[in-house]
Specification:
Layout: H1 3-29, E1 34-36, E2 39-43, E3 50-69, E4 76-95, E5 101-108, E6 113-120, E7 126-147
Antiparallel strand pairs: 1-3, 2-3, 3-7, 4-5, 4-6, 4-7
């Protein structure tokens, strides 16, 4: 085989490999969460057990799952969700330790969403949440949480009469 024929054959092979690689990347990116200009602020729980995480984004599309350390394992936590978006859709879901949505707030095209309830943390004391966006623009979300765990008082020994 002559040199130009080998180059053409090799070029076709590289072109085919490039197409395959591009297809794989596009399929992998199809399930991704793409966000532009996202900023997240975390205010850890204070002495009273109250904390907050909030985020702002310029634009987003897709879905992502995140975790937030809030306290002891299997603890009940009061949660308040707020979601706002100027265009598109933005949904915030709190997930059970098993991964099911137990609380959700959704915002669509300028209408804010709000939800509150009591959820349980997983065995590591984390609260899991899913953020889903569909052509969302200029959105923000807030998760406020408060520990409902009440410590058991230690009995105090009384002096004998």
């Amino acid at each position: 085989m002559s040199f130009p024929a080998r180059c053409r054959a090799r070029g076709d092979r590289w072109r085919a490999l490039g197409c395959i690689a591009l297809t794989v990347v596009l399929l992998a990116a199809a399930g991704c969460y793409l966000a532009s200009g996202e900023r997240t602020t975390l205010l850890p729980a204070d002495a009273s057990g109250r904390g907050e995480i909030s985020g702002r984004l310029v634009s987003a599309d897709g879905s992502t799952m995140r975790e937030l350390q809030v306290g002891p394992s299997n603890e009940t936590v009061a949660v308040e969700l707020t979601v706002e978006v100027e265009r598109g859709e933005l949904t915030l879901e709190i997930l059970s330790p098993e991964g099911n949505a137990v609380l959700a707030a959704a915002a669509r095209y300028g209408r804010a969403g709000r939800a509150d309830g009591v959820v349980r943390t997983d065995e590591a004391g984390r609260l899991r949440y899913r953020l889903s966006a569909r052509e969302a623009g200029n959105g923000r979300y807030t998760i406020r949480y408060r520990s409902t765990w009440v410590p058991t008082p230690t009995p105090t020994a009384l002096p004998a009469p």
